[in-house]
Design goal:
It catalyses: heme b + 2 H(+) = protoporphyrin IX + Fe(2+). It is found in: Cell envelope. Its main location: other. By secondary structure, this protein is an alpha+beta fold. The chain has one domain. It has eleven helices and nine strands. The strands form two sheets. Strands 5, 6, 7, 8 and 9 form a five-stranded antiparallel sheet that branches. α3 runs antiparallel to α5. The longest helix has 19 residues.
Length: 416
């Protein structure tokens, strides 16, 4: 590297004392929204670029990482004729590229888009779709958890923007850093895979609120209050596939998925023109929570438990029987829970003149048959929110555990 080529890694040494503080805070994150609500001080804006997330580890980054302000979700299909050998080579390239970028280093054949930026909490997460196993001759090793999701009455799914052989989630706290990673992944796919669909999302920027708090969606609602937290004793059991023989989880999970998780991805369009016609009080009845602070209609603060038995003077439930919060509550679904980690999106105006905007819903669980499916079935039967949303795309992906130093994501599947 010539003297005048400043890598993203060298930038970290120029941040100074403020940057060093940012690295310490970055693990907890200063983002406005949290995958698992933390109670740490907000990160100063000057340190946003210096925060980093390690690529290697027991789990892939981008699952419990605090929600970043910019994201890309991309699905790829293997090219005709590409099989297990080509897929393994692709995962080696992708893993090596992601590890360099997460460390603040340039990619091979770097475009220069992010040369003057720090890693900005960049994460790149990889998953396999159901069809990946057929195309690589590994159908016998496909988890039963990748069986197709059931049809729901509210689905209006576009198959061109659903599923895929491979899935990549990119998140960062800088738009250029996220775009740079997206281009690096797309370029390093080479002739082995081609893009099936791409969706771009956003959240609040780090430091934009006076204190860390759960993020709001485009309906103005605080979204993610009941997320499992890493401090919960059953967090790992709910979110990650256990190591075989550990005595927890489902016995039908394949060994190569140990430390991994399953991602359900849904593009949910919000019918904002209809929603915004409701008075705030009526919106609160639909959700079952106050719009101002996310607290249950039965009182308290955002994290106060729902009092589902409480009734008003007229004898009706304070939290309506069809309120979204009631129907989706774990106690109403035999304890079923998932870690929601979405991005908002806005793709301009639809042909009918309404906003094409909503939620790129991403949820993580050790078993979607016990997490997403039972909850969505119940929502599908009578959620008051249903008239204001439309599920337009869907995908289910097996996301293996993290890679060791020098290894790559998916090696236990592709090399065994």
């Amino acid at each position: 590297m010539s003297d005048n080529e400043i890598s993203r890694r060298r930038l970290l040494g120029t941040v100074g004392a403020a940057g060093a503080t940012g690295l310490a805070l970055g693990a907890a994150g200063g983002a406005a929204g949290y995958a698992a609500a933390a109670a740490d001080p907000a990160t100063a804006l000057a340190t946003v670029g210096s925060t980093g997330e390690p690529f290697h580890g027991e789990h892939q980054a981008g699952i419990t990482t605090p929600m970043q302000s910019h994201g890309h979700l991309v699905a790829f299909d293997l090219a005709p004729g590409a099989g297990r050998k080509e897929a393994a080579a692709l995962m080696r390239r992708w893993s090596a590229t992601a590890a360099r970028l997460a460390a603040g280093e340039p990619a091979d054949d770097d475009t220069g888009v992010a040369l003057d930026a720090g890693p900005s909490s960049l994460t790149v997460t990889f998953g396999f779709g159901r069809t990946f196993f057929d195309r690589t001759g590994l159908a016998a090793r496909r988890p039963v958890q990748l069986d197709p999701l059931p049809a729901f009455s509210g689905d209006r799914l576009d198959p061109r923007r659903s599923e895929g052989d491979l899935w990549v989630q990119i998140g960062a706290n800088d738009a250029l850093v996220a775009f740079h990673a997206l281009r690096a992944v797309q370029k390093s796919a080479g002739g082995a895979a081609r893009t099936r669909w791409q969706m771009n999302g956003f959240n609040r920027s780090p430091g934009i609120t006076s204190r860390p708090m759960t993020s709001r969606n485009l309906m103005g609602q605080i979204d993610g209050t009941r997320n499992p937290k890493p401090s919960d004793p059953d967090f790992d059991r709910r979110v990650f596939v256990p190591v075989p023989g550990s005595g927890s989880g489902s016995p039908d999970q394949p060994a190569w998925m140990a430390g991994g998780s399953y991602a359900v991805v849904r593009r949910i369009r919000m019918l904002l023109d209809d929603w915004e016609k409701l008075k705030p009080k009526d919106q609160e009845l639909v959700i079952g929570r106050r719009k101002s602070d996310g607290a249950p209609l039965t009182g308290g603060g955002e994290t106060t438990e729902l009092d589902l038995d409480r009734t008003g003077p007229d004898g009706s439930p304070v939290i309506p029987a069809d309120a979204h919060a009631r129907i989706s509550a774990p106690e109403q679904n035999a304890g079923a829970a998932m870690l929601r980690r979405p991005f908002s999106y806005h793709d301009g105006m639809a042909a009918d003149g309404t906003p094409d905007a909503g939620l790129l819903f991403v949820c993580w669980q050790a078993d979607p048959l016990r997490g997403f499916v039972p909850v969505q079935r119940k929502l599908d039967r009578g959620d008051a929110l249903s008239p204001f949303i439309r599920h337009e795309a869907s995908g289910l992906f097996a996301v293996p555990g993290g890679a060791d130093e020098g290894g790559y994501v998916g090696s236990r599947l592709l090399e065994s």
